[in-house]
Amino acid sequence: MGQSQWDYDKLKDCFTRSEKSLNRDEDHRGKDRPWLNGTLSDYASRVLRPMTRTAEHHAHNVPSISLAAFDIATDQHMRRSSLFSVYLPSDLLRSRPNLNISANTIATRIVFDAGTQKLRVNGARRKVVLCCGALATPQPPMLSGIGPEDHLKKHGVKTVVHSFGVGSNLRSLFSSPFVHTVIFLPTCLLSSVGTIMPYGASDLDISKPENVPDIQIKLIPVSGIDGPSEVTSGVCTFMVCLLRPKSVGSVRLARADSCE
Ligand SMILES: Cc1cc2nc3c(=O)[nH]c(=O)nc-3n(C[C@H](O)[C@H](O)[C@H](O)COP(=O)(O)OP(=O)(O)OC[C@H]3O[C@@H](n4cnc5c(N)ncnc54)[C@H](O)[C@@H]3O)c2cc1C
């Protein structure tokens, strides 16, 4: 993402301190934390086994053209292991007097400490993390005067920090499911042992900008629309995701009102 504070090495520790991988014993995976990540059900594992073997073959160096198996956040019984269920169970809430939860509450403004030289959020000793989702997160800062100055002025909001980046440069990794009844045939994309056939070694070098993948296809051996009820009908989903979208958008205030 271009932010050094959010690079792989910094986030890796947060990730391993959060999760327990049910199926993988790898250095970069968590071993004993509450958030569970597993694989698809037995049925899906059987269908995917030849593909996951190929994925393991490629996964160690993640070249620009590759197959990789992905996990899903479920427990042993295929129930969702959401961050909400894992980190906010009622016994934990009772044991954390410094954690306040306000249900059915909309955050409208960030209140700053008046009179301090450095801009500080009122009551915060260190950092404040705003996580209202990709589209809604820019709203409270803009209503509080952090955002593009011209835009804030238009809505009568006094600028505290001019920052054009708030609400800007948003990209959508568009993803669309194609659900088909399929029969797989070998093609020249895969060799006889299931490895992907590149044009040449340099095609696999991910450090070259021209090799950054344009597309990701997630193969799901069930219907990605109707759920796993169709497991016997040979239905397969190709979830196609554009990895380098050209369209860039922004979100701005419609009114200086927290509900718009
Ligand atoms: C259809 C769909 C399928 C997906 N499937 C997967 C998947 O299989 N695996 C995966 O890893 N990811 C998946 N994702 C992506 C994943 O859901 C998001 O990346 C993730 O939820 C983002 O988390 P977040 O906490 O940043 O934001 P969110 O989950 O969007 O949470 C933001 C919260 O803030 C609240 N909020 C907003 N404004 C305010 C305000 N002013 N005051 C108070 N509260 C506010 C919102 O109501 C919301 O509850 C999927 C997303 C979609 C839409």
Outline of the structure:
With 260 residues, the protein is an alpha/beta fold. It has helices spanning 8-16, 42-59, 83-87, 90-95, 139-143, 149-154, and strands at 19-21, 35-37, 146-147, 161-162, 175-181, 215-220, 235-242. It holds the Pfam family GMC_oxred_N.
Features:
single chain, 260 residues, alpha/beta, 3 domains, three-stranded antiparallel sheet, two-stranded parallel sheet, 6 helices, 12% strand, binds flavin-adenine dinucleotide
Describe the structure.
With 260 residues, the protein is an alpha/beta fold. It has three domains: 1-101, no CATH class; 102-169 and 249-259, no CATH class; 173-244, no CATH class. Helices cover 19% and strands 12% of the residues. It has six helices and seven strands. It has helices spanning 8-16, 42-59, 83-87, 90-95, 139-143, 149-154; strands spanning 19-21, 35-37, 146-147, 161-162, 175-181, 215-220, 235-242. A three-stranded antiparallel beta sheet has the order 5-7-6, with no helix packed on it. The longest helix is centred in the first third of the chain and has 18 residues, at 42-59. The radius of gyration is 23 Å and the shape is globular. The two termini are 28 Å apart. Flavin-adenine dinucleotide is lined by residues 106-107, 131-133, 136, 140. The site of flavin-adenine dinucleotide (FAD) has 7 residues, from loops.
